[in-house]
Task: structure prediction
Amino acid sequence: MTLKDIAKEAGVSISTVSRVINQKGTSAASKEVQDRIWEIVRKTGYSPNTAARDLKNGNSTSAKKPTRSIACIFARTDDPMKDIFFSTLARGLEEEAFHHNYIVKHLITFVDIDNPAEFRRVTGDRVDGAAVLGRCNRQMLSFLKKHFNHVVYSGLNTINAKYDQIICDGYQAAGSVMEKLIELGHTHIAYIGDTKEENRYEGYCAALSARKLPLRRELVVHTPMTTEGGYQGTLRLLEKSRDFTAIFCSNDTVAIGTLHALQEKGLRIPKDVSLISIDDIDVVQYITPLLTTIHIPIEEMGKTAAKILIDRIEGGHRLPMKILLPFSLVWRETCAEPRRTL
Amino acid sequence: MTLKDIAKEAGVSISTVSRVINQKGTSAASKEVQDRIWEIVRKTGYSPNTAARDLKNGNSTSAKKPTRSIACIFARTDDPMKDIFFSTLARGLEEEAFHHNYIVKHLITFVDIDNPAEFRRVTGDRVDGAAVLGRCNRQMLSFLKKHFNHVVYSGLNTINAKYDQIICDGYQAAGSVMEKLIELGHTHIAYIGDTKEENRYEGYCAALSARKLPLRRELVVHTPMTTEGGYQGTLRLLEKSRDFTAIFCSNDTVAIGTLHALQEKGLRIPKDVSLISIDDIDVVQYITPLLTTIHIPIEEMGKTAAKILIDRIEGGHRLPMKILLPFSLVWRETCAEPRRTL
DNA sequence: AACATCGGTGAAAACGTTTGAGTAAATAAA
DNA sequence: TTTATTTACTCAAACGTTTTCACCGATGTT
Result:
């Protein structure tokens, strides 16, 4: 089914059909012809060939007319939980894009963003802009910028200020966690979770030094950010040192493992140890004891990313904007004043 | 950057450039010219205009040459947890597609699959096939089949046998759960979760009647499939009846809520009540008591879906195939023989 | 010396759209 | 009645590819 077929069947020219379908206001066609054409469209289930349309409407670099489509670039981490986190973000993105009548046309996963060969994965296909979710680096970003001419980032890190970014800053969230703990009187605070390229860990370190507290190597354990990782990591921590009164886990999943290990060792929470983490995943408010954590508005981030990207595509703003979505401390049962070192 | 630009710069014709880039084996070009062209390609970062290429290579219905791209159709549910489940599935799909050098070109969320107006969301864009994730119905499926000419489904339900499908059957999983419970001696088994369009519930009913046990309305509670839903649902159940020895929750998230409510009411698990569910999400093996559940290989399903779809696209098989991925009972701490009715 | 073969290359058509320019008829303004 | 304007439509070019056909010169075969 092409315009030609419809034109023939309706007994008019291709141009007329095209104009009717695209609702060109100026001297479209007679009511009669319009009806005839729409009837055929309906009957045959015709939908315009996007390839032809895009080709005509301009190529990727010098777009004249929007395609109403965006790309979603998703960067893998080595933490499955985090990937689920970002999938959720992607879902929010798609949902909001839909409301603006945009389609996400490419879902591209970068497995290793440090490998420029990966960049080959983005095609010469035309989209109006791209959203980068999760991780990113300078090289990748500048490549994407060249290729897509509108790109926004959404994730847990602050990035180069010349890009639109919708973030919920892990660094600051960690700072918040630490502030709270210190405020309660804790000074010996352990960290369990990823320590590499993880700004929650950086926030931990920064908070410590801001308060002139020493960063004690024996109190940080590097472990995969899974429940199992939290469990094993806590066991390792307990072997290394017991000189702490609180534990900051880099996310809820880890914290649940930690909780388990702690309980297994007969430690009471929060009496013996305070426990806090980040994310506020659904289940966390139903385990015993109820986990104190920081809530992150994931889906909201995705939606906002879509909104900002589309606004930029449509010329709504020219200056790069950095949107900080607020996290919020959810006070539950696992934090209290320190009693004494274990 | 177009072929024309490269051709001019290299001092050859467009055709030659095209041939070199597409590696046409037969009489490509002289080594010298090839090098010159590739050098320019590299330098300028040229990548072919997919719109033009697709247009030339054939339109969506009568594809001559593969585009190496697939669409991912994602049907929203009203259960956020389930949506995350399916996001994970989508991730598996994309990952596997990548390994086959395919790209997922459309991510389309159907908000309401019963509304044919939604179908408008799929564009006239050309892809080699589509994967439907999550929910689907006949109407939607036949539309997609017409539009995409290769479609596979992956999810929790068995569908019309003429489509490729990769499923982990919720109906059978529920049957398995019930069998186990009945085997242990339970005859009064409650159900908590969604009851509409939910084949886990259907499996519950079927298992009951297979064993000639009555379906007792007061023992099933319909509730959103969230932790909160499980919590509230359990409270409602307890008010209605205490004449049961086991509870089957439609998924882990619900079960965690149930656990919480049960503990709050001073009920011991599994001494007073046995509890079992489906999904085996990560955290479930670390809460107290450890939840007995059924493991579903979600990401594997996504990967398999990609594999099957691509195989079909490339002509690997012609007959529709139904692949049943195995679920497995994970025996942990929440099931035991019944003692007495509460 | 005449002829087939072959490697290397170019010209041009086609894919399905969109759109500016053009035309013929109908209507309105003079 | 003539002339401008509007309405309803058509023609044809262009977008960036891929690919068929044809061409040319060189090499190899009778």
Observations:
- The radius of gyration of chain B is 26 Å.
- Residues 175 and 203 of chain B are 5 Å apart (CA to CA).
- Residues 2-4, 14-15, 18-19, 22, 24, 48-57, 65 of chain B lie near DNA strand D (CB under 10 Å from a C1').
- Chain B touches chain A through 59 residues (CB under 8 Å).
